[in-house]
């Protein structure tokens, strides 16, 4: 069971701080961890895991026996803007975006990666 969060407006480096905490945990434990985590990425990633859980429920999986098998955070491109600086120069501002992919699997399943 998979769910994808595309074009999330936060750098992948900051989002990975949150995803590294929940990878490999059971789904209820992961959601409880994210609920009390004081990071901006915690809420969107919790919603993403809940979405993957709903996808699993629709496919008829036993939701109590699922764990977060894999979370991948990768770059989803970059918006570029310019900031005027002294002496007619300009500085580049990079607005980085992330793509987060969550895969859920039963607890006893072996990892293929």
Structural class: alpha+beta
Number of strands: 3
Strand content: 35-45%
Side-by-side strand order of the widest sheet? 1-3-2
- What value does the average pLDDT take? 92
Detail the poorly predicted runs: none
Question: Can you characterise this structure?
Answer:
With 113 residues, this protein is an alpha+beta fold. The protein has helices at 12-22, 27-35, 42-58; strands at residues 2-8, 66-84, 90-106. A hairpin with a 5-residue loop joins strand 2 and strand 3 (90-106). The longest helix has 17 residues, at 42-58. The mean pLDDT is 92.
Features:
3 strands, 3-stranded antiparallel sheet, 3 helices, elongated
Which secondary structure elements does this structure contain, and how are they paired or packed?
Elements: E1 2-8, H1 12-22, H2 27-35, H3 42-58, E2 66-84, E3 90-106
Antiparallel strand pairs: 1-3, 2-3
Please summarize what this structure is.
This protein is of the alpha+beta class and 113 residues long.
């Amino acid at each position: 069971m998979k769910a994808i969060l595309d074009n999330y407006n936060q750098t992948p480096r900051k989002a990975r701080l949150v995803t590294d905490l929940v990878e490999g945990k059971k789904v209820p434990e992961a959601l409880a961890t994210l609920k009390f985590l004081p990071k901006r990425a915690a809420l969107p990633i919790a919603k993403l895991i809940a979405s993957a859980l709903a996808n699993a429920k629709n496919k008829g999986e036993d939701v109590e026996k699922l764990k977060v098998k894999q979370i991948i955070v990768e770059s989803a491109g970059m918006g570029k803007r310019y900031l005027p600086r002294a002496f007619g120069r300009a500085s580049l501002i990079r607005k980085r975006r992330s793509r987060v992919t969550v895969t859920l699997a039963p607890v006893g399943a072996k990892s293929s990666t």
